Backbone:
């Protein structure tokens, strides 16, 4: 259920981005949502491509080119990769900051142990 919600939000966001760069029609929302779901799953399964690099973009361009044209689909695919990379960097930095703010474990303290 959580993944379904995540993919729906991701699809709407991707569709809004498509509308801003290539005037994607209103009826294309399900196509954008399905495209991002298919591309994400294929990128995850493609063990030969780090983070699905190239696989996701290729599928997005293939699925969306009939809707927003080849140039719009290419731009949307590249922008989506940039947004995903930026989100990964922000979350990694947030995790690092949180980790640095934690008090150090005392001598003899085990990780995850409660008192």
Residues:
């Amino acid at each position: 259920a959580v993944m379904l919600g995540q993919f729906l939000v991701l699809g709407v966001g991707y569709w809004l981005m498509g509308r801003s760069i290539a005037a994607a029609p209103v009826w294309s929302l399900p196509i954008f949502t399905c495209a991002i779901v298919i591309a994400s799953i294929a990128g995850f399964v493609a063990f030969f491509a780090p983070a699905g690099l190239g696989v996701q973009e290729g599928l997005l361009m293939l699925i969306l080119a009939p809707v927003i044209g080849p140039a719009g689909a290419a731009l949307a695919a590249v922008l989506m990769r940039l947004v995903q990379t930026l989100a990964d960097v922000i979350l990694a930095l947030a995790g690092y900051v949180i980790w640095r703010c934690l008090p150090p474990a005392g001598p003899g303290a085990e990780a995850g142990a409660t008192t």
Q: What stands out?
A: Residues 76 and 113 are 47 Å apart (CA to CA). The two ends are 35 Å apart (CA to CA). The first helix runs from residue 2 to 22. The helical segments are 2-22, 29-45, 55-101.
